[in-house]
Predict the structure.
Amino acid sequence: MESLTEVQQQLFDWLVDYIKENQHSPSIRQMMRAMGLKSPAPIQSRLEHLRAKGYIDWTEGRARTIRILKPQGLPILGAIAAGSVVESYTDSVEQLDFSCSMLKPGDYALRVRGDSMIGALIGEGDVVIMRPVQDPKTLKNGAIVAARVNSEGTTLKYYHRKGNQVTLKPANPNYNVIEAAATDVEVQGLLVAVWRGYGHLAS
């Protein structure tokens, strides 16, 4: 799915919130006020781009018919180990219904296996929502990431880097710290949120 510019994302996020709250789409004038614009032309241009990129649609010739098309869900791309490492995710195996304006194109979800991050309130069966990382050097030490280690598997851990050395720390003292050269660690995602279905906890 094609990404949005900053102003397109701003309008899309506002539309998602407005339609969710009011159960109908806003007028062009309302969008102009919300975006701080005095002319309808920029709004119309942004709407056309959102439509062309598959985020919204509307019925021609009828006012207030804008419909949100995406994001309505996130692909769950497999499992992420909260233990040692597991085989990397490949294909989407489930779809998580999760409509939320904080999500961005490219975000994805992984289902947690293991309890090595239980101290961070991330447990077995939870779904972690991840955002791709373009440059690991921009990560702050202590960030929770999905990292592929030595091309063997992917794990969810606290990320720390000092020079050319990366340390992946669990949030459970029963698990070992993973240390590797930065060149052997591929950071595949940064934790955005945790989604927990409480049904599986019922006895």
